[in-house]
Amino acid sequence: MKAPREIQNIAIIGAGESGTGAALLARHLGMTVYLSDAGRISDKYKEKLLQNGIACQEGTHQLEKILETDVVIKSPGVPDKSPVVQKALESGVSVISEIEFASWYTTKPIVAITGTNGKTTTTALTGHIFTTAGIRTGIGGNIGRSFAELVMHDEQYETYVLEVSSFQLDGCYTFAPDIAILTNITPDHLDRYDYKFENYIASKFRIAQSQKPDQVFVYCADDEATVTNLPKFAIQSRKIAFSALKEPEEGAYLLNENEFIVKINTMDTMIIKDFKLKGTHNAYNSMAAAIAARIHEIRQEKIKEAFSDFRGVEHRLESVATIGGIEFINDSKATNVNSVIYALSSIKRPIVWIAGGVDKGNDYSALHDLVKTYVKAIVCLGKDNSKLLDEFTGMVDVIADTHNMEQAVKTAYSLASKGDAVLLSPACASFDLFENYEDRGNQFKFWVRQL
């Protein structure tokens, strides 16, 4: 869609992937750009900004410059309660997300994927299917390149496949993807939502809030929070479900752990067998991606070809190495309790579990039975592990307190035996000790390879 009004001056708060991408697109469109970050701007982004003639300020925000602009773009990591954001809102300046901004400057079809868990795998798989089918696809958003930087090269793409987080959706008002996928909703990031699950749920449903009747909303019919709250939101788009428990009127359903069916009205029914990603949670991701592909009228043989060679995403149940009969598994992207449930349930052997980081208001009680059944030892990894130690002490034979990755890996190795798995599945954000979950996962892999 087009921008709701002409924009000449723009301010951007936060200079990470999202903010830098927004600045590049704005400059490309001929706008005057002011970009600032309360912290230090990484060399990677600073170099890219300066190469494109964009001045950036770090360590502070000049409020007067922000308030004299037409629109403020807030990076996902900047909370709505940030003083500079509140000042802009109080002054009547529009504050939006980079996703919203970029969507104004492309008319290409968009598949947008959100959800507490599975959104990265579903995005990567959907993008892989589209690319296998020969469609020039821009894959990004909350993974890889920002949507704004992709749109800067809009002529290169025929469609976009985007992972979109709740923080990005909070700044969306007109964003209307042609296909919106909601994988599931479980409590996460509650520290950003006043510790109210209903606020987080509302954020996730924003992915479909502006959709029109000729667009599609894809959701999990087995997810309680999604199904219970769906009637509360005035979603105008066509609704298509996927399920492992029942056959929807239109959508996808799991026949067994190795086979599912996709049936879209007006199209032939398609059967997918022996898909590479294992586990019920990955079956859900696979069904959602297949629905998007079929709606996009990608041929069955291309969809099946893409499923046959897709290998998953880095930092999500990624097998790193087997040393002394002990398998080390990198699940650094598991930043909430529900992700850890998937991980512990999928490993059919004794587990030494590495967990911890920045707690986001987690309720660990849902993990108790799994920990008692599968976990032989826990290695806590974080600046402050007191909550984990209080929660699980006495539930396993050994629980260790560590404060860097080298120590955590070596401790886990010493506690594991041949035939066990060492699983990094933190249930927490990474920002106490690491730049992000990728840095945490990469450090895990580095220290495993030093054993």
Automatic annotation (TrEMBL):
Pathway connected to this protein: Cell wall biogenesis; peptidoglycan biosynthesis
EC number: 6.3.2.9
Domain Mur ligase central residues, every copy: 113-293
Binding residue positions for ATP: G115, T116, N117, G118, K119, T120, T121
Domain Mur ligase C-terminal positions: 315-428
GO molecular function: ATP binding; UDP-N-acetylmuramoylalanine-D-glutamate ligase activity
GO cellular component terms given for this protein: cytoplasm
HAMAP family assigned: MurD (MF_00639)
Reported function: Cell wall formation. Catalyzes the addition of glutamate to the nucleotide precursor UDP-N-acetylmuramoyl-L-alanine (UMA).
Family in the record: Belongs to the MurCDEF family.
Name this polypeptide is given: UDP-N-acetylmuramoylalanine--D-glutamate ligase
